[in-house]
Amino acid sequence: MSQAQASIPSQPRAKQLRACLLCSIIQTPADFRKHGCPNCEELMQMKGYPDRIGACTTTYFDGIIAVIDPETSWVSRWQRTSKYVRGMYAVRVKGRIPEDVEAELESRGIKYIPRDQTDMD
């Protein structure tokens, strides 16, 4: 069974890790530049655009969760990542997605819930 997954960054690159503000997947800036976000590239459009990576990801996140089987993991359900690819996810991400992405989500009838675990509206 073949399932998409994100790469696990090597230890020397750990200080460069960034978390996607929309889905909270953790990757290196090079991975975001080369592949984009494996979960929400359609909305975030980071592939090949360093400025967009800076706006749509952050280095300010807490905790890391390794998700191996997102569809059956209770942690994935709790983190709202059960429909995403396998990979490393931040428990909490500080920051908000860009306004254009939030407007696109709204136009699709999707309510944006920030991943910093606050009740921000």
Automatic annotation (TrEMBL):
Biological-process GO terms, alphabetical: regulation of DNA-templated transcription; transcription elongation-coupled chromatin remodeling
Keyword vocabulary terms for this entry: Centromere, Metal-binding, Nucleus, Transcription, Zinc, Zinc-finger
Any GO MF annotation of the entry: zinc ion binding
This protein's record includes keyword Transport: no
Pfam families assigned: Spt4
GO CC terms in record: chromosome, centromeric region; DSIF complex
InterPro entries xref list: RPABC4/Spt4 (IPR029040), Spt4 (IPR009287), Spt4/RpoE2_Znf (IPR022800), Spt4_sf (IPR038510)
SMART domains (UniProt xref): Spt4
Keyword Nucleus: yes
Entry's localization field: Chromosome, Centromere; Nucleus
Residue span, Spt4/RpoE2 zinc finger domain: 17-94
Family membership noted in the UniProt record: Belongs to the SPT4 family.
Function noted in UniProt: The SPT4-SPT5 complex mediates both activation and inhibition of transcription elongation, and plays a role in pre-mRNA processing. This complex seems to be important for the stability of the RNA polymerase II elongation machinery on the chromatin template but not for the inherent ability of this machinery to translocate down the gene.
Subunit record text: Component of the SPT4-SPT5 complex. Interacts with RNA polymerase II.
Record protein name field: Transcription elongation factor SPT4
Organism: Cristinia sonorae
